[in-house]
Amino acid sequence: PKDAVKALKKKLSKNCNHKEIRLTLSLLDMCIENCGPRFQSLVVKKDFCKDKLVKLLNPRYNLPIDMQEKILTFIMTWARGFQGTVDVSEVKEVYIELLKKGVEFPSSDTSRGGPKTSSQPSTKSSPPSANPAKRSLLPLPTGPTLLLTPEQIGKLYSELDMAKMNVRVMSSILKENVPGSENPDDMNLLQKLYKTCRMMQERIMELLVTVENEDVIVELIQVNEDLNNVLLGHER
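Structure tokens predicted for TM1L1 protein:
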């Protein structure tokens, strides 16, 4: 695995040939799918995922959008972890750094290709958090980092459950309304949900760079991805 990663690094280092970069990214994708933890544990280190992959997002390389999205998808997917004992702490730091800089990640494949969620009439009722007034998930810490107490974690998870419900309702509305023949009531609720979800995402991104609890960070990343996917779906 070390030799393979070394070869990939060499191909990606200071390379402005888009065709070669594209082929290397495809090869990396296949290796991730077919190689085990020994290979995966090497590519999630900062000296690869940040110094080689993320560096290619620099404007001087002028990568096509689809290649930029592929790199961002790698970072986002790896940050969620692999099966087994692969330590993804370094790539997770890179992912959070990019979120903090305002980088917009592409929708995940699971969101686009996953099974459709069946909706029930009661789902359309306006959820409590559909109010456009800003909701605070948790007060911002006064220091640079925050270790949440069990009570704070419980409150935060309740708010995240509300965010998940908003995502489900918003996804349902987007699937059921065909452009040109939208239901006015649905569109009104959709706009409220959009504003609420956008504010929730902003708060989650703030928390991602302040909280220290590992389990909480994992949950925040997942909810942020769900919010990002549904918000992108609405903006399209």
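The domain at 2-100 is CATH 1.25.40.90 (Serine Threonine Protein Phosphatase 5, Tetratricopeptide repeat).
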